[in-house]
């Protein structure tokens, strides 16, 4: 049986192997992913992002536990947890499983740790492909936990259907809350550690920031507008987790009911194809360059003899002529 | 194309109360360019085997200070074999009496490291064991 068939058959070891091959971008992995691609599209993908130390891993652990307690109807859950790679050694410590030990022994749960391997968007380059493979393998809900992210790490919103942004009291003043970026990608906002002093202030700051971001937040005629709810949780005690799960479910219904799911999926596929195309065109372009030509241009820009845009224009012209 | 980073699991089975040694090793392996999955204290052999499977690791390091290694280590090896990961090398560190080392090695452990082993030696052992396993697979 091929690796792809074994994955579709529910073999966990084969799935784990496939994820490694995809992460390493091997031809074998990409081929197997292509073979199972038609089986994707069933899972609901939930992104969980937020600053380091807000309790994302603990929250993900509790959310998965809660989802798995729904009895016979409980969805199966895959978790992809991304941690940063060291820019110096390329190594990484992937420690998210420390907070997910409650999920051990449940065959309806599959946890995979990933290093960011130099990507800056909060997820690794291969994260989207890993999620596809887990989707094809039949998991109902896929939770993607990003690197502890701050303000600009918004790549997760392209991979996830529902993006949960986690905040905690005492991390910054209300100006942090209205900075563009991470707040705008939130479909659900969570103030975790809400038993700590200052939680009320954080909740209030987020709610007023949301009012600014969604001035027309009302049910418009014939068009439902999603206003991200702001929830308070204490993940270490499991408080507020039911509400979080409910909000995610409600957001999914909203996406499906309003037709926004189709629009999001299209935007996601488009941006994914564009990224792949960019990568392939660049590789093809560079491999068609005469030896040393690109390096020579780099040196010219370095010496300030040529502006970057001018350098690219010349390279492209040369290739068109050649 | 640079070689892909090795993925290793560092786990502490049993009831040990602290994991300073395991963390030192985890950091050293990270600084050597490996991706280290660290699972924290008080792991059962079942939890370790499950993590090894889901993470598809190239090698496993077990840190044991409690003296329960002769029970815990063979159990981990047995579970790995049962789930089709018998080829994944297992290295053991911690307080292991010399007289237990031959038995652990006979059970299939790829290396045993006592206190005072240099991190260089441990990094080298992980690299070599992973390479040998990949070539044998």
Condensed summary:
Chain A has 322 residues and is α/β, with parallel strands linked by helices. In chain A, 45% of the residues lie in helices and 13% in strands. Chain A has a seven-stranded parallel beta sheet, with helices on both faces.
Structural description of this entry:
The complex is a heterodimer of chains A (322) and B (137). By secondary structure, chain A is an alpha/beta fold. Helices cover 45% and strands 13% of the residues of chain A. Chain A has 3 domains: 1-38; 40-259, Rossmann fold, CATH 3.40.50; 273-321, no CATH class. A 7-stranded parallel sheet of chain A has the order 4-2-5-1-6-7-8, with helices on both faces. In chain A, helix 2 packs antiparallel against helix 5 (127-136). With 137 residues, chain B is an alpha/beta fold. Chain B has a single domain (7-136), classed as Rossmann fold, CATH 3.40.50.280. In chain B, 45% of the residues lie in helices and 17% in strands. In chain B, strands 2-1-3-4-5 form a 5-stranded parallel sheet, sandwiched between helices. The model of chain B has no long low-confidence stretch (mean pLDDT 93). The A-B interface holds A 12-13, 16-17, 19-20, 24, 85-86, 88-95, 97-98, 101, 104-105, 110-113, 115, 117 and B 4-5, 7, 26-27, 29-40, 43-44, 46-47, 50-51, 53-56, 83-85.
């Amino acid at each position: 049986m091929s690796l792809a068939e074994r994955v579709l058959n529910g073999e966990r070891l084969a799935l784990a192997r496939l994820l490694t091959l995809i992460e390493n971008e091997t031809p074998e992995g990409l081929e197997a992913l292509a073979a199972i691609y038609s089986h994707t599209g069933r899972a609901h993908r939930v992104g969980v992002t937020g600053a380091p130390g807000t309790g994302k891993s603990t929250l993900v652990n509790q959310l998965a536990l809660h989802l798995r307690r729904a009895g016979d109807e409980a969805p199966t859950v895959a978790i992809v947890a991304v941690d940063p790679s060291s820019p110096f050694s390329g190594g990484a410590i992937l420690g998210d499983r420390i907070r997910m030990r409650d999920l051990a022994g449940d065959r309806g749960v599959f946890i995979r740790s990933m290093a960011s391997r130099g990507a800056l968007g909060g997820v690794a380059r291969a994260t989207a492909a890993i999620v596809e493979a887990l989707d094809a393998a039949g998991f109902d809900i896929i939770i993607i936990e990003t690197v502890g992210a701050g303000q600009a790490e918004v790549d997760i919103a392209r991979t996830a259907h529902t993006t949960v942004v986690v905040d905690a009291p005492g991390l910054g003043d209300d100006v942090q809350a209205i900075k563009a970026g991470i707040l705008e990608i939130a479909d659900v906002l969570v103030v975790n550690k809400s038993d700590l002093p200052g939680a009320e202030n954080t909740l209030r700051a987020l709610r007023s920031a949301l009012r600014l971001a969604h001035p027309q937040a009302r049910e418009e005629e014939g068009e439902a507008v999603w206003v991200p709810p702001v929830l308070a949780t204490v993940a270490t005690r499991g408080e507020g987790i039911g509400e979080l799960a409910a909000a995610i479910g409600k957001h999914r219904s909203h996406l499906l009911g309003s037709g926004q799911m189709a629009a999001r999926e299209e935007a996601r596929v488009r941006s994914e194809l564009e990224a792949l195309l960019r990568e392939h065109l660049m590789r093809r372009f560079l491999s068609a360059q005469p030896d040393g030509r690109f390096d020579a241009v780099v040196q010219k820009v370095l010496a300030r003899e040529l502006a970057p845009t001018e350098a690219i224009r010349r390279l492209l012209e040369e290739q068109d002529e050649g | 194309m640079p070689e892909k980073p090795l993925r290793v699991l560092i786990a502490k089975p049993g009831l040990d109360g602290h994991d300073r040694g395991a963390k030192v090793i985890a950091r050293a392996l990270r600084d050597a360019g490996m991706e280290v999955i660290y699972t924290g204290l008080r792991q059962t052999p079942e939890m370790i085997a499950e993590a090894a499977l889901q993470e598809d690791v190239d090698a496993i390091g077990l840190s044991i200070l409690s003296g329960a290694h002769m029970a815990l280590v063979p159990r981990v090896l047995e579970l790995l074999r049962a789930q089709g990961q018998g080829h994944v090398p297992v290295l053991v560190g911690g307080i292991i009496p010399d007289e237990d080392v031959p038995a652990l090695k006979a059970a299939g452990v790829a290396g045993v490291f006592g206190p005072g082993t240099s991190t260089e030696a441990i990094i080298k052992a992980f690299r070599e064991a992973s390479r040998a396993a990949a070539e044998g697979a």
